[in-house]
């Protein structure tokens, strides 16, 4: 009798294990959805959390869409709101893919960031032959009026100007020698922010940049110039509410520390928020097994988030993608051994990675109620 029931139990377990392996991914990942999700854990700490998204994947790939719906309360378009995507020709606007992201966000009770209105990259092919000293200012303000106007009242925030500082270009003000600088002059930044405010009075207007995370001399210099830029804008009464710290980190390259912490506090002193806008950790410098690489990557995520989330004016964390399947890092920093990058909270099969658990733990350690911020 005893032996028979043990045998029956064994059979039942074997059958349910076999059935589980046939279940859709969603049933297997139950423990990271709903109350266990990054989204719910972030919301408990008053934090926005999310990722960059690709509209075609939201439409065509249920595992992708479900993961984004479960894990994020804030989205950003990885490419769909850049000039190149929105402006197929000088007089043509293509809002459909970006609108699809907004519709997805609204359907899932998520906010959306705009990225971006002014950048030296992702300009359409026609730009170079069309933009001149005479018309560049008008091109910029018309674009902002039309694009920010299209989304007015519907966005959490806009990256108004992206990556305007490049210290190695050698200018005393640290400005990058971008087409906008060359065609419009150094005022282009102020012009862009004022135009964005006119077009959308509610989105939080953000200056976004990279290479300002580490305690290296280069990155310290860049932080000084970014801060000086933001301070100049504030002094001149330019509408700007937040700094975006992109946070494209590399495992094995150094760990962010007091330089970034002090920078975030200087931004707080200007009554401004900080968004972690494009977090990911490239593992192209790591050797070792996937498990060893994952441990190092997850540790950097945890250390980084603990550092920045200790600052109450850090109010949002976005990763640059949700799944390793589509990370830009496979193109940006391909591994020399040909292995794919493992850099995001979900792996290429939509299973949670050690990064997921490091992020969730860091959210849980965040102080409960951040003080109210002026906008
Ligand atoms: C990247 C996208 O991820 C890629 O798909 C695209 O080919 C190039 O741009 N900083 C930014 C982002 O502000 O817009 C960039 O996104 C990554 C670096």
In short:
This protein is 45% helix and 14% strand.
Q: Can you offer a commentary on this structure?
A:
The chain has helices spanning 2-22, 25-28, 38-43, 55-60, 62-71, 83-86, 96-107, 125-130, 136-150, 179-184, 188-199, 217-235, 258-269, 290-309, 329-332, 354-365; strands at 48-53, 74-77, 111-118, 157-162, 204-209, 242-245, 248-250, 273-282, 314-319. The model is unreliable at 1-27 (pLDDT under 50). The N and C termini lie far apart (72 Å). Helix content is 45%, strand content 14%. The chain has an eight-stranded parallel barrel, surrounded by five helices. Helix 9 runs parallel beside helix 11, helix 12 packs parallel to helix 13 (258-269) and helix 14 runs parallel beside helix 16. The protein has 16 helices and nine strands. With 375 residues, it is an alpha/beta fold. It is globular. Bound molecules: (3S,4R)-3-hydroxy-2-oxopiperidin-4-yl beta-D-xylopyranoside. Residues 78-79, 162, 246, 278, 328 line the site of (3S,4R)-3-hydroxy-2-oxopiperidin-4-yl beta-D-xylopyranoside (XIL).
Pairing-aware structural class of the strands and helices?
Answer: alpha/beta
- Proportion of β residues? 5-15%
Number of DSSP strand runs? 9
Q: Helix coverage percent of residues?
A: 40-55%
Provide mean pLDDT, rounded. 93
Q: Any low-confidence stretches, pLDDT <50, length ≥5?
A: 1-27
Largest sheet: 8 strands, parallel, barrel
General form: globular
In whole angstroms, the N-to-C terminal distance is 72 Å
Q: Give the C-alpha Rg.
A: 22 Å
Instruction: Enumerate the distinct ligands.
Output: (3S,4R)-3-hydroxy-2-oxopiperidin-4-yl beta-D-xylopyranoside
> Going across the major beta sheet, what is the strand order?
1-2-3-4-5-6-8-9
One letter per element, helices H and strands E, the order comes to: HHHEHHEHHEHHEHHEHEEHEHEHH
Figure out the total of helices.
16
């Amino acid at each position: 009798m005893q032996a028979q029931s043990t045998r029956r139990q064994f059979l039942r377990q074997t059958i349910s294990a076999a059935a589980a392996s046939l279940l859709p991914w969603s049933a297997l990942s139950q423990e990271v959805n709903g109350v266990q999700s990054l989204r719910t854990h972030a919301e408990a700490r008053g934090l926005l959390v999310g990722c960059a998204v690709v509209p075609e994947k939201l439409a065509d790939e249920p595992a992708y869409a479900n993961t984004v719906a479960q894990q994020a309360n804030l989205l950003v378009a990885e490419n769909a709101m850049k000039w190149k995507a929105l402006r197929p020709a000088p007089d043509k606007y293509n809002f459909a893919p970006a609108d699809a992201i907004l519709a997805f966000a609204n359907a899932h009770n998520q906010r959306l960031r705009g990225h971006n209105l002014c950048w030296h990259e992702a300009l359409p092919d026609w730009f170079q032959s069309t933009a001149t000293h005479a018309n560049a200012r008008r091109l910029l303000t018309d674009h902002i009026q039309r694009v920010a106007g299209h989304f007015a009242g519907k966005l959490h925030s806009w990256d108004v100007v992206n990556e305007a500082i490049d210290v190695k270009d050698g200018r005393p003000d640290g400005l990058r020698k971008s087409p906008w600088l060359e065609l419009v002059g150094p005022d282009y930044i102020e012009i862009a922010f004022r135009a964005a405010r006119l077009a959308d009075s509610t989105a939080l207007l953000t200056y976004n940049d990279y290479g300002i995370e580490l305690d290296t001399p280069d990155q310290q210099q860049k932080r000084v110039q970014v801060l000086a830029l933001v301070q100049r804008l504030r002094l001149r009464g330019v509408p700007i509410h937040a700094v975006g710290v992109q946070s494209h980190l590399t495992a094995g390259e150094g760990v962010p520390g007091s330089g970034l912490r002090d920078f975030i506090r200087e931004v707080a002193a200007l009554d401004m928020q900080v968004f972690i806008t494009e977090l990911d950790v490239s593992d192209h410098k790591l050797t070792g097994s996937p498990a060893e690489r994952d441990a190092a990557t997850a540790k950097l995520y945890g250390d980084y988030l603990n550092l920045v989330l200790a600052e109450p004016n850090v109010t949002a964390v976005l990763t640059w993608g949700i799944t390793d399947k589509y990370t830009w890092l496979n193109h940006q920093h391909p591994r020399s051994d040909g292995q794919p990058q493992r850099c995001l909270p979900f792996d290429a099969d939509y299973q949670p990675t050690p990064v997921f658990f490091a992020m969730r733990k860091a959210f849980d350690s965040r102080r409960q109620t951040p003080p109210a911020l002026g906008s």
